[in-house]
């Protein structure tokens, strides 16, 4: 909590991915000068597996993801920042698509045309989905409910944003809440 007391970053929170210009890059610079720094290497390797872990969590609820409509909430690497540098959206979309899901992406910071330039299918709130993976902690997502994502059966909250009590009838999996 002390590390995150400044208003611009929340770097010590478990979640779906590590993005941005600094955190994904600086450990690699450190490793270049100290290749035996196993804790740094192990942390980067663990962070890189989190998008697939979240996809696997959704699949554990839905079963085979082939043909399932899945939305990734947030293209940005963090909330209220219109930037995708090293964003977890890219591996998350790839991992969902590799599992056979029909993947779309929503981000309140980006237009449909901007999302399409990244190769994403834009999602519009209110379209039916089977599941969602919350990738960026935009404040708008805090107020989402199942009515915003009709038909949703599983929500993997990769940023610990939503109130699971608002998601009656939906399996909510919160990454970083300390529950295994």
Structural Rg: 16 Å
Alpha-beta content class: alpha/beta
Can you count the beta strands? Answer: 5
CATH architecture, please?
A: 3-Layer(aba) Sandwich
CATH fold node name: Rossmann fold
- Gap between N and C termini: 22 Å
How many separate structural domains?
Answer: 1
Helix coverage percent of residues? 25-40%
What's the helix count?
Answer: 5
Percentage beta strand: 5-15%
Descriptors for this entry?
Rossmann fold, alpha/beta, 5 strands, five-stranded parallel β-sheet
Short description:
The chain has helices at residues 26-33, 38-62, 89-98, 112-117, 139-142; strands spanning 69-73, 102-106, 131-134, 154-157, 171-174. The protein has 180 residues and is an alpha/beta fold. Strands 2-1-3-4-5 form a five-stranded parallel β-sheet, covered by helices on one side.
Give the arrangement of secondary structure elements.
Elements: H1 26-33, H2 38-62, E1 69-73, H3 89-98, E2 102-106, H4 112-117, E3 131-134, H5 139-142, E4 154-157, E5 171-174
Parallel strand pairs: 1-2, 1-3, 3-4, 4-5
Helix pairs in contact: 2-3
Q: Can you give a write-up of this model?
A:
- The protein is of the alpha/beta class and 180 residues long.
- The model has no long low-confidence stretch (mean pLDDT 88).
- It starts with 25 loop residues before the first helix and ends in a 6-residue tail after the last strand.
- β1 (69-73), α3 (89-98) and β2 form a beta-alpha-beta unit.
- The protein has a single domain, classed as Rossmann fold, CATH 3.40.50.
- The chain has a five-stranded parallel sheet with strand order 2-1-3-4-5, covered by helices on one side.
- 29% of the residues lie in helices and 12% in strands.
